[in-house]
Write a structure and sequence with these properties.
TIM Barrel, 3-stranded mixed sheet, 9 helices, 346 residues, 7-stranded parallel sheet, alpha/beta
Length: 346
């Protein structure tokens, strides 16, 4: 359910995807936590400070819909597994070199999956609301994304069963987030869904995950951004796009900048009239910082196929793998480039 009213946001709102650039000192603190050198108050103060910084810099850049920067999370998703009962960490058989495809399974099922204490979204959100008056995006990985790194062990037949086991846990967490004040939920899922969940079943799984969640629902279909590199070799939406109409999604977040604006027309071809496009027009996987004029040029390309009233602008992905100062400048370019086109349309 799209919860924004007409006057809540400007034309072509700007949004972040979720994660913000990690401050250098936070890496030091995380290592100290692993060594047991941080007390609970030390840890809380550190994550509060990092969240304050992320919110402040997003506000300074002028972004319309921001997040808490995902500062309390480790590598977007990994920290969430600590909340899940029924999984154990798997020691990788290869510890040297670039983390590769033989290091995907980081966890193994040992029992039926449960999350009796949730995943921590309400706590993140409650604190973030004390630091900003701007609309807040609440992102969370979807069941396929979570299941991707879990070996089913002897508990489940395959990763698809693992994903379905996660659906009610994630649904309950999203409802708890809404009860804590969330109005805009974004589910992050991979583009290569057909690896272990057929596309039609993925739609069913996604809809079950967001069923009864009274908020604006976004879906970020991701091509991966580990260490600033795409994870998918053939980055296309042609397989999932025909199913857009069947999904309980208000805003589709699609990556265009890193793909040279390929498939800029695909949303118009397949989306319902009541669905919106958050177009990725800033490339987070490129080290160079786009000028506002380049961002404006990319937005104009999207506008050839999508009405401005149905368009949001964003980065391709989050900034967790981007140097913080680069991410900050890229957000400024996003806002300034969007403003250029807004003025042209006024």
């Amino acid at each position: 359910m799209y919860t924004y009213q007409k006057d809540d946001l400007p034309l072509m709102p700007t949004q972040v995807v979720g994660s913000y650039g990690t401050p250098s000192w936070l890496y030091v603190v995380r290592d100290a936590m692993k060594r047991g050198e941080m007390g609970s108050v030390d840890i809380k103060e550190t994550f509060d400070d990092a969240t304050n910084l992320a919110i402040m810099e997003q506000e300074e850049a002028g972004v319309d819909v921001i997040s808490d920067g995902e500062m309390r999370r480790f590598n977007f998703l990994v920290g969430f597994y600590d909340y899940i009962q029924g999984v154990e960490k798997i020691p990788w058989e290869r510890q040297l070199g670039y983390p590769g495809p033989d290091m995907i399974d980081a966890f193994r099922c040992t029992a039926e999956l449960k999350a009796p204490n949730g995943f921590g979204l309400p706590e993140e959100l409650i604190y973030a609301h004390t630091r900003t008056q701007k609309p807040l995006l609440t992102p969370l990985g979807g069941p396929v994304t979570f299941a991707f790194r879990i070996n089913p062990g002897d508990v489940y037949k395959n990763k698809k069963e693992v994903a379905w086991a996660l659906v009610p846990l994630l649904n309950a967490e999203l409802k708890a987030a809404v009860a804590a004040g969330a109005t805009h939920i974004q589910i992050d899922e991979p583009s290569a869904i057909d690896d272990f969940v057929p596309l039609d079943e993925f739609v069913e799984m996604f809809n079950a995950t967001v069923e009864g969640v009274d908020a604006t629902i976004g879906l970020h279909i991701c091509f991966g951004n580990f260490m600033g590199r795409p994870a998918v070799a053939h980055r296309t939406y042609e397989h999932i796009a025909p199913l857009f109409k069947d999904m309980n999604v208000d805003i589709f977040h699609l990556e265009f900048a890193n793909r040279g604006m390929w498939q800029a027309e695909i949303f118009e071809q397949y989306a319902r009239d009541d669905q919106y496009l958050a177009a990725g027009v800033v490339d987070v996987k490129a080290r160079a910082i786009e000028s506002p004029e380049i961002v404006a040029e990319r937005i104009r390309e999207i506008l050839k196929h999508t009405a401005p009233e149905r368009l949001w602008t964003s980065t391709d992905c989050g900034f967790s793998m981007t140097a913080r100062w680069v991410g900050r400048e890229k957000l400024k370019a996003l806002v300034e480039g969007t403003n250029i086109v807004r003025q042209e349309l006024s």
